[in-house]
Amino acid sequence: MRIGIKLMLVVVYLWLAPAITPGSEVRVKMSDLPPAVQATVKEQSKGATIRGFSKETEKGKTTYEVELTKNGRGKDVSMDTDGKVVEVEEEVAIGSIPEAARTAIEKGAKGGKILKVEAVSAGGGAAQAYEAQVLKAGKRSEVRVAPDGSPKPEED
Questions:
Q1: How distant, in Å, are the alpha carbons of 40, 52, 89, 125 from that of 68?
Q2: Reported pTM
Q3: In angstroms, rounded to a whole number, what is the distance separating the alpha carbons of residues 69 and 20?
Q4: Does any domain span residue 35?
Q5: Between vectors from CA 131 to CA 114 and to CA 118, what angle results, nearest 5°?
Q6: Cα separation of 53 and 60, whole Å?
Q7: What is the dihedral sign for C-alpha 134, 58, 25, 34?
Q8: 103 is in which domain, residue-wise?
Q9: Does the residue 13 lie in any domain?
Q10: Which domain CATH number covers 113?
Q11: How many domains are contained in the chain?
C-alpha cells in the first residue's frame, strides 16, 4: 500500500513539475499565443520557416519565443505578452562579427570547437552580445561576449 501511494505521488509530481518550476519553458502552438504575439510572429517570420513556439514564465513575467530558420540560419525572437520584441538571437558567421568579439570567443573556445555563433540584440536592434556554443572535451558550454570582446554575463 505504501509503495502505491509513493508511486502515485511521484507520478503526480512529474506531471505537475513543469507547470510549477520557476523559469519553466513549455512548448506551445500558434493558437495558444495571445493575438498581439501572433501578429508579431507573422511579421517576424516573413520569408522564414517556423520551427516552433515556447512560453516561459520567470519571476512572474511571461515571454513567448518563436524559433525560425531563415536563409539556412536559426533565429529566435522573444516577445512580451503585448507582442513587443524584447530579444532576438540570430545565428551569424563568426567572420561577420567585430574582431574583438571574434578574438574573445576564439580565446574562450580554445581547445574546443565553435558549433555556432549568435548575435543577441534587445528589441531587434544592433547586437549587444555574441553567444558561441562550444564543444570541448565532449561537453557543451557557452561563451558570451560584448561587441568589444569583454565578458557579457546573461542578464536576468
A1: 13, 7, 10, 18
A2: 0.79
A3: 31
A4: yes
A5: 85
A6: 19
A7: negative
A8: 22-145
A9: no
A10: 3.10.450.40
A11: 1
**Nearest by Cα to 126 from 92, 82, 83:** 92
Mean pLDDT of the chain: 88
| Residue 152 · residue 101 · CB < 8 Å | no
The string of pLDDT tens digits covering residues 33-79 is 999 999 999 999 999 999 999 999 998 999 999 999 999 999 999 99
In a domain, 151, yes or no: no
Return d(Cα 76, Cα 69) in angstroms, integer.
Answer: 9
Give dist(CA 49, CA 45) in Å, integer: 7
138 dihedral zone (left: phi>0; alpha: psi -120 to 50; beta): left
Strand, helix or coil for residue 10:
helix
Task: Specify the residue for cell string 505504501.
Answer: 2
> Is residue 16's pLDDT more than 60?
no
pLDDT digits (tens, 9 = 90+) for 127-137: 999 999 999 99
Give a yes or no: residue 154 inside a domain.
no
